[in-house]
Design goal:
Blueprint (H helix, E strand, L loop, with lengths): L2 H9 L13 H4 L11 H10 L1 E5 L4 E3 L8 E6 L2 E6 L5 E7 L4 E2 L13 E4 L3 E6 L1 H10 L1 H27 L2 H16 E4 L2 E4 L5 H8 L3 H13 L3 E4 L2 E4 L2 H9 L1
Antiparallel strand pairs: 1-8, 2-7, 3-6, 3-8, 4-5, 4-7, 9-10, 10-12, 11-12
Helix pairs in contact: 4-5, 6-7, 6-9, 7-8
Length: about 250
């Protein structure tokens, strides 16, 4: 295997966990890698029939309502999937990282996309057409197993989202999201936890099913209550215990 190809294998491994709204951190930390079961030769075979595509930040990958034409394997960068409601409001389903794929559930093509996907950073994706994917799954059992694992993980993701939206208040969802960010991206020092990921109030609102104005008011209230502070657009959690009680009440 040459050095360039080895680099592609390395960057196809998840560098951070996917992010979605959940009350169970066990599932979110699984970090399945769609391509992890493949050898170098098998991965080369997959890339030979796929098409490498590059997207800049905030570039649309596919849109809700468009026809399915296969899946997009994330080799580098971050991708947001979201549902656009009739009123124009967006609900973020998840932020996906390297090793995951987007474009389901009609992975073999046909039907229409039920949601949209947008690149959040410079992304390199491998597009696999549905008919090519079917052929590869027959020839490569590891790829077939990885696809099933990926679909199972996505099923858990969307089930967790529905449970949170249906059983928790908006305030509880915001508190739980901050706790999830603590677990995934938190760096603790002197009793405080810096969340090393920048999310705007609008991005938080789209994840918890609220308006940007409501999130801004809630963050201001959290600061006055000494639950958190904001430094360079990043949250620092000051009292995790109280935040946990808020998420549970």
């Amino acid at each position: 295997m040459n050095d360039a190809f080895a680099g592609l294998i390395q960057t196809a491994e998840p560098q951070s966990s996917a992010l979605y709204l959940t009350e169970t951190l066990v599932d979110i930390s699984e970090r399945p890698n769609f391509l992890a079961r493949l050898s170098g030769d098998e991965y080369r075979q997959v890339r030979a029939v796929g098409r490498e595509m590059k997207f800049g930040p905030q570039t649309e990958i596919f849109s809700q309502g468009e026809r399915h034409d296969g899946i997009y394997v994330i080799e580098s960068g971050d991708v947001r999937t979201y549902y656009l409601g009739p009123s124009g409001r967006e609900l973020t389903l998840a932020y996906w990282t390297p090793g995951h794929f987007v474009g389901g559930p009609e992975v073999f093509g046909g039907g229409r996309h039920m949601w949209s996907a947008t690149a959040m950073s410079d992304c390199r994706l491998l597009h696999l057409r549905g008919d090519h994917l079917q052929q590869l799954m027959t020839a490569l059992p590891g790829l077939a197993a990885g696809l099933v694992e990926g679909l199972v993980f996505k099923g858990k993701c969307y089930s967790a989202l529905l449970q949170m939206l249906g059983t928790r208040s908006v305030l509880q969802r915001l508190a739980q999201l901050l706790l999830t960010l603590c677990e995934l991206d938190g760096r603790e020092a002197a009793g405080e936890i810096l969340i090393d990921r920048s999310l705007t109030h609008e991005e938080l609102a789209n994840m918890v099913g609220a308006t940007r104005q409501w999130v801004t008011a809630s963050i201001d209230r959290f600061q006055k209550q000494s639950l958190l502070k904001v430094i360079d657009r990043k949250f620092v959690i000051l009292d995790r215990d109280r935040l946990e009680r808020l998420a549970e009440c």
